[in-house]
Amino acid sequence: MLLEREAELAQVADALRAAAVGDSSLLLLAGPVGVGRTALLQQLPALAGGAELRVLRANAAPMEQDFALGVVRQLFDSLLTGVPEELRAGRLSAESGLWRTVFGDDGLLLDEAGGAVPMSEEVLYGLRSVLADVSADGPLLILVDDLQWVDAPSLRWLAFLVKRLHGLRAVVVCALRDGYRRPGDPTLREIADAARRVLRPAPLSLGAIKEVIHEQFGAPGDEEFARVCHEISAGNPLLLTSVLSGLAGNGHRPVAEQVEEARAQRPAQLRERLAGSLRAQPRPVRALAAALAVLGDQAEPDLLARLARLDPVDFLAALRDLHQLGLLAAEKKPRFLHRVVQDAVESSMTVAERERLHDAAAALLYHRGRPAELVAAQLMAVTTSDHPWAVEVLRAAADTALRCGAPRTAARYLRRALLDGSLAGEGRARLLIDLATAERGFDPAACERHISQAIPLLTTARLRAAAALRISPTIVGQAPPSVIDLLHQVAEDLGPADALEGTARDVALRLEARLRHAGHEDPAELAAAVERLTELGAEPALDTAAERELAAVLLNAAMLTARRPAAEVARLAGRILEREPATSEQVPSLLPLVVIGLVAADSVRGISSWLSMEQRTRRQGGTVVEALADVQQAMVLSARGRAAQAREYAERAVRLAEVHWQEAGVVSTLALTGVALDLEDLALAERILDGPGRRRSSSLALTSALQFLKAAQDTLHGRRAGALETLLACGRQLEASGWRNPVLFAWRPWAATLQQRLGDSCAAMALAEEELVRTAEWGAPVALGRALRLKAGLLGGDQGMKLLRESVDVLRASANELELARALLQLGKWLRPGAEADAVFREAAALASACGAPRLVERIRGVDGSGAAAAPPEASLTRTERTVASLVGRGLTNQEVADELGVGSRAIEKHLTSAYRKLGVSGRRELIKLLPRMDM
């Protein structure tokens, strides 16, 4: 039965009528497995409506992809056997060379290595000319099933043909499975793009399912039973018939029993029924099914026969039996009809049988020269293997997985390789180092353990030191003492960098960087690092990655202690990034410290493009490395005052780090903490305080950030004394550690404000004076402007107004627009109502809205002295932004909005980001909540 395919049949019929008058076309028949593409394709010749229609058909198969022109041969074979005798003797005899190319077995299209040689233009045009001659006598219907499996030469010819259908009276219909990709070959996409229409058979409706039930059982099905079948199969004809076949032969039973049994026929139950049926089959049938389950996509007739240990006669008989059982898609195409069949076969095999077959399949594929990852996939299903080549195959597969951004897969391959008992010495050490390299992004503890196991097996100091550097460094947290001890050990063994050359010198410099950064919470170690920076001179060498990494660590020490001015830190940081190739893959290093230095120096305007280029090179999606890239973006956006955008990056980084609370968990929480403080988001602050970071990290940076959040929480709840005590304790801890930078942890301005509110003006002024001195020495505009605003608020009067105006002027040179908005708000409050105050408030509101700080926007509007009604936030949206926001409010994804408007998804992202800024919301969820209150 072919149900509910009238629309598709009608479109093909229309195309045939158009072809009859010279308007040829290509139609693509697409859909998921089991939707009935092949059944529909088989029905199309019935649309002929007359004897003049010629039908050419071909069925592609994975096992035939290596047969050059296999599909073309099928098409032209059906054409050749049906042509009139006079045309055969005339036109085709003149093209004998062409037909010999298509049908001959003399290897004309194969090179010495057995690879396909591209067809000449003469052959391509010759084959089209034959179709043109035939179509002159009547329209052609060319049917190709399973386009995704077509061999490369045939695919090229099809691509050639569909671009040159003009002049033919032909309709080409190709069936293509959804979700198929052909890596490295764009031809399939070219054919798909050339289609005039894409026909997608829909799942069967409830009414159609009732008809199938009637056909199956000879009587209409009950309404409830039909609905259950529809629910179970989701309208997929293959799954539906599988369920109904399992119910057939049980006779008429009450509806309740039918429904219950239908629900029991879910894939797991169907698998068991199929497995039971398989167990009852003769050995050759079970052996072939098992071989097909093990080989999967690599199943070829000769491989299947060898793995199943069947001679040619038994192999063909078993293949026919599997097809008659309804387990294969087609008798000559050995692949299972559905994944449930594969599951059934696997469940019918014993553990020992499964291991034996996978081990034998690995050997077959290896000796056939198949890619390492295909051989490794078979080895992974075997507990142990005696093949001498197994370890190298697994290493090669792991290397491919790492290049493709799949470190967990690579680690699984390498752990399996370590089970080989023949490995010893440096061979085992190299394998352990490879495994540690794969693990460092998602399991640092395992990485350290495997490096520690590898080092004693290495024979030279340089190799041991290089192995230790495979352990990912910590950025803001404390490295484990065991790692520090290991680094000291290999550094002493290697010797100082000044006594070394080449690679050994670079390794020594990187070791020095790691060890110096390990003391970044020790004031004595920080002072020594700053002294080392002085020794390097005003223009330290930055030619190698090792020199840049050491410079980044020493620069970080100078930044934390504020013992070098911000301008000097920014200049050296800029030199490092100028020489650091953002487009290359970097071994995890301490270079992110450069970004922190630029943030503290209030010099981030030129770094966004570098970070964007760096992030595009990340290949380990979903790992700590990817989270660190997002954190850097969040830090830069926060330094510019773009809190809403920073929140998106920071929250994504936190999500990536949730599974493994390691370095990325610390730095992503730090970034999110800064966002919570900027946005004054109490809910976000409480979520961070209740998270795992507070319990598991001893990092001074994170501890201080969490204390800031606690102080914010106390302040918002009116517990000012408690907030002040927390801030002062935090300040003492930072000072004791040598962290004197006034940008990263601005505790004095906040503490001074609380002291003033609690009535201790003298203590507040003392802190304000100290902060002003510190910020003037450091020289970053954001810190100096903030300190001037603080002192202005404490002084008041004309002197305070003078300092406040100076604060605004200084902050105009800062990258942080949020701090400027705060200063403008304070200035507007102090000014007399009038034109200047109105202008100041408008500028402050625009900046706060652009930064995505809704609370600040509300305060600005609340004190606007102009008396005029503030414009609603949606008034600032462009027409396109309003349209995009409206579609998002209907629940559409970015891609769906892009499809609706006919633009790219990147354009939608830009419009949404702009709307977030203007509306003062942090993301999609807040936008959707705001939409009902907006006039849109």
TrEMBL record:
<dbReference type="Pfam" id="PF13191">
    <property type="entry name" value="AAA_16"/>
</dbReference>
<dbReference type="InterPro" id="IPR000792">
    <property type="entry name" value="Tscrpt_reg_LuxR_C"/>
</dbReference>
<dbReference type="InterPro" id="IPR041664">
    <property type="entry name" value="AAA_16"/>
</dbReference>
<keyword id="KW-0067">ATP-binding</keyword>
<dbReference type="InterPro" id="IPR016032">
    <property type="entry name" value="Sig_transdc_resp-reg_C-effctor"/>
</dbReference>
<keyword id="KW-0547">Nucleotide-binding</keyword>
<dbReference type="InterPro" id="IPR036388">
    <property type="entry name" value="WH-like_DNA-bd_sf"/>
</dbReference>
<dbReference type="InterPro" id="IPR027417">
    <property type="entry name" value="P-loop_NTPase"/>
</dbReference>
<protein>
    <submittedName>
        <fullName>LuxR family transcriptional regulator</fullName>
    </submittedName>
</protein>
<feature type="domain" description="HTH luxR-type">
    <location>
        <begin position="870"/>
        <end position="935"/>
    </location>
</feature>
<dbReference type="Pfam" id="PF00196">
    <property type="entry name" value="GerE"/>
</dbReference>
